[in-house]
Amino acid sequence: MVTGAQAYLPVDLSGLRVAITAGANGIGKVMADGFAACGAQVFVSDIDAAALAACGYRHMRADAGSVADMEAFVTEAVAQLGGLDVLVNNAGIAGPTKKVEDVTPEELDATLQIDLAAMFHTARKAVPALRANGGGAIINLSSAAGRFGFPLRSPYAAAKWGVIGFTKTLAIELGPDGIRVNAILPGLVDGPRIRSVIRNKAIAAGIGENEQTEKAVTTTSLRCFVTQYDIANMALYLASPFGTTISGQALAIDGDMQVLI
Predict the structure, then answer these.
(1) Are 103 and 96 in contact (CB under 8 A)?
(2) Which residues are catalytic?
(3) Does 35 score more than 90 pLDDT?
(4) d(CA 7, CA 30)
(5) Phi, psi at residue 25, to the nearest 5°?
(6) How much is the pLDDT for 72?
(7) Are 241 and 18 in contact (CB under 8 A)?
(8) pLDDT higher than threshold 70 for residue 85
């Protein structure tokens, strides 16, 4: 069921200074590895101290749920890298899998803070550094849930739709400064996170995990999961010279998903 890239796009990003939130695990780590493989300097944050210690990049521990941590991350990235060319807002959580009436205020607040507000705070701090370069790129991770309704995942969908509005607004606001802003919308990205989501959806629906997996895959025209490399390669493309006229876009990497279930 998994098709897609298993290697990185061969682009030259030598000297590019890149900050990635949640960059020590999962998609963030694959993106960090991709930027490094293409010659970029990388600085990452993560909440997982052990993963940070093993990631091989300059880093700091930061909680995307903390405004102060997100601001400090950008400040430290600029200091460590000697400036900033690319900000990748990757941090996110799945949020609860519940009917809307069962979602607690605390669950809603945490999901919106980590999946949306954290991007606002990092971007706000990063813009002066990007502007000082004469331009740069901000890449926000949204989701297929940022263009479809997603039953039982209302906090997550609300946040990811918000990311699209934030991205398009920033693209207009920052375009005159040469700062490109785009969103990547992953679909079913193979890995532990989507397997956990499928498991929770299956439990909520009262069906087996295999049945829920089959239902999920049939929502894509290509009948597939995508890979973390597919997501990383889009980030590399957007940060490269090939992406210099691409801004304000919500780019779905999802095997042509038609609906979320």
Answers:
(1) yes
(2) 156
(3) yes
(4) 10
(5) -140, 160
(6) 98
(7) no
(8) yes
Measure the CA–CA gap between 218 and 224, rounded to whole angstroms: 8
43: phi then psi, degrees, rounded to nearest 5: -130, 130
Kindly tell me the number of DSSP H helices and DSSP E strands found in the chain.
Answer: 9, 7
Domains of the chain by start residue, with CATH: 17-186+227-247 (3.40.50.720), 188-225 (no CATH)
**Tokens 């991007």 appear where?**
119
Which of 167, 187, 60 is CA-nearest to residue 123?
Answer: 167
pLDDT given at position 71 = 98
Give the CA diameter of the chain: 54
Alpha-carbon span 131 to 126, nearest angstrom: 9
Return d(Cα 38, Cα 187) in angstroms, integer: 25
Contact 253, 184 (CB under 8 A): yes
> What's the pLDDT tens digit per position in 206-223?
999 989 888 888 989 999
DSSP 120-175: HHHHHHHHHHHHHTT-EEEEEE--GGGTS--TT-HHHHHHHHHHHHHHHHHHHHHG
Query: What is the percent of the chain where pLDDT is above 90?
Result: 86
- Contact between 5 and 233 under an 8 Å Cβ cutoff? The reply is yes
Neighbours of 210 (CB within 10 A): 10
Q: Mutual orientation of helices 118-132 and 67-81 as an angle, nearest 10°?
A: 30
**Distances from the Cα of 209 to the Cα of 32, 201, 213, angstroms:** 31, 8, 6
Nearest-angstrom CA–CA distance, 57 and 28: 12
CA–CA separation, 89 and 104 (whole Å): 26
Q: Which residue has the tokens 């550094």?
A: 129
Task: Give residue 45's identity as a one-letter amino acid code.
Answer: S
